[in-house]
Amino acid sequence: MLAAPVNPADINMIQGTYAILSPLPAVGGNEGVGEVLEVGRRVAALKPGDRVIPAGTGLGTWRTQGVFPEETLLKVPNDIPVLCAATLSVNPCTAYRMLADFETLAPGDSIIQNAANSGVGQAVIQIAKASGIKTINVVRDRPDLSKLVERLMALGADHVITEEMLRKPEMKDIFKSIPKPRLALNCVGGKSTTEMLRHLQPKGTMVTYGGMAKQPVMVPVSAFIFRDVRLRGFWMTQWRKDHAQDQEGLASMMDALCQLIRRGQLTAPACTEVPLQDYRAALEAAMEPFTSSKQILLL
User: Which residues pair with 75 in a beta bridge?
Assistant: First the structure.
């Protein structure tokens, strides 16, 4: 293994609260990139020197070396940066699928998302920008808000607002220049999500893929009756299971993401590189509030 991030799902698996738990004893980590050193005689698709990422959840990437069945790995191009490859299989794939699978978006359309500084949020901004889709990005207020806004705007965000602003009349000013969003992406829950939903177009869709606030998604009855909004859920692990036989679809997505990386339109999220022996510090940092930098274990 070369590098592996610490994602919220990794922490949840260790805590025993995730939907999938590996049999114990287990190695942590669901994402990362490695280099093939040796292959068995029956391995056809991989060779020494190839770069590979996990094909599914639960591989256990927080390790220096491993022996894996060929079908549990996906080959990625050697010419994309290590940090991009290490963070490719979860967040960018989640962002790509949510933008593609729930609404037919065209250049000039808009989407709104909370947790916009998360790994998925940063990928959504960049993929949407490359497709001509406008983004309204909601973040929590914080002491260094101006720096965060500057960073997200540099990635291609059109608007960055706080959760508090969702409730203010000034939101109308945003929609003077862009249409109301047809798609909302929710990773938080609670009041933030309810307020975000109010700005969705009639017949629009809100997709929930996380619950950082650990609060339920609350939707006014009027949103269903008078605006016919749709609420959906998304989990990348389930998508991979449902499309296990659709290798062409998987390859098409991975190729599209790698092309964006090559063109400089999709970069790795803000990262802090941590040697494996300092894993405790990486785990503690990953659980800190207002974290804007992904912890990457260097293996």
Answer: 52
